[in-house]
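ARCHIVE CARD
CATEGORY: sequence design from structure
SOURCE FIELD: tokenized fold
FIELD CONTENT:
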């Protein structure tokens, strides 16, 4: 008999504009989670009240309110998720999901993702195709088929516990680090283009950050994670088609170059960098020789 039990963990900070629709997406799922720990990290905008009302109706939803600074940071997100995992760790489950508080998807989303897991015993992380909010509409995110955005990463529980969950990264990218570590341990990762995930905020703009500033910070993140400069150049060219055209790619490249020229200390191990760059070179070779045999290992964020 197949096991379809999953638990969800959400880190939320001042998400009153979006968290209600995210909760509605989950409570309408054809397979409901066993537990869902929502950690409100020093929210001041009514996020707690919204979650609390839903928790009264759905006892498997748990609100954890953390005191502290209202300053948004990626390290704070990891700590919030650690609090969530501590709350649900004793709940039996086959899968563990990270879900951001500004996401929506169809009612059969988790049922279909879990179905993919059941067909592939080595699949460690899976999730849907990401569409970011841009203006009054949504735009498909540029990403590789093996990259599952951290906002919707569903882990096989044994895989999640094997890598020890997320680790704090000064520049963000904890989801990419987790994903690469999954592949380093022999698991596979997969994004599902047939399953649409709606992200109701433009990527990287949490806390009121402007899009171009977010791109600059993402460039610093790319260096911190160990991206090869040649791969970064190709990636920057590929993002010239992302609005605002040229500026988006330019700001991300500038962030990368600043970190490179200042020899910024990385938060990942040398083994991690070697593995990541191997994947990146395999992808570059696949671009040059598109009809060559499929590569065994692929990096996830480009």
């Amino acid at each position: 008999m197949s096991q379809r039990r999953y638990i969800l963990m959400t880190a939320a900070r001042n998400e009153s504009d979006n968290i209600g629709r995210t909760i509605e997406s989950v409570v309408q799922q054809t397979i409901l989670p066993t537990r869902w720990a929502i950690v409100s990290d020093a929210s001041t905008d009514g996020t707690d009240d919204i979650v609390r009302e839903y928790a009264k109706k759905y006892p498997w939803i748990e609100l954890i309110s953390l005191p502290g600074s209202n300053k948004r940071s990626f390290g704070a997100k990891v700590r919030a998720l650690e609090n969530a995992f501590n709350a649900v760790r004793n709940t039996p489950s086959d899968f563990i999901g990270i879900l951001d508080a500004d996401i929506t998807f169809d009612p059969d989303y988790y049922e279909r993702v879990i179905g993919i897991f059941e067909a592939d015993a080595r699949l460690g992380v899976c999730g849907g195709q990401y569409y970011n909010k841009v203006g009054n509409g949504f735009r498909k995110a540029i990403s590789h088929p093996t990259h599952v955005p951290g906002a919707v990463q569903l882990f096989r529980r044994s895989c999640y516990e094997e890598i020890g969950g997320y680790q704090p990264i000064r520049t963000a990218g904890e989801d990419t680090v987790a994903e690469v570590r999954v592949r380093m341990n022999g698991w596979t990762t997969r994004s599902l283009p047939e399953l649409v995930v709606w992200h109701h905020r433009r990527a990287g703009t949490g806390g009121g950050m402007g899009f171009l500033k977010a791109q600059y910070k993402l460039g610093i993140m790319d260096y911190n994670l160990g991206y090869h400069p040649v791969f970064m150049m190709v990636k920057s060219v590929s993002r010239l088609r992302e609005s605002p055209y040229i500026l988006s790619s330019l700001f991300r490249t500038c962030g990368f170059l600043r970190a490179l020229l200042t020899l910024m200390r990385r938060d990942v191990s040398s083994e991690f960098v070697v593995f990541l760059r191997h994947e990146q070179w395999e992808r570059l070779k696949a671009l040059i020789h598109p009809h060559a045999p499929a590569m065994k290992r692929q990096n996830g964020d480009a």
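CARD ANNOTATION: The two ends are 38 Å apart (CA to CA). Residues 294-302 have pLDDT under 50 and may be disordered.
SHELF: design records, drawer C
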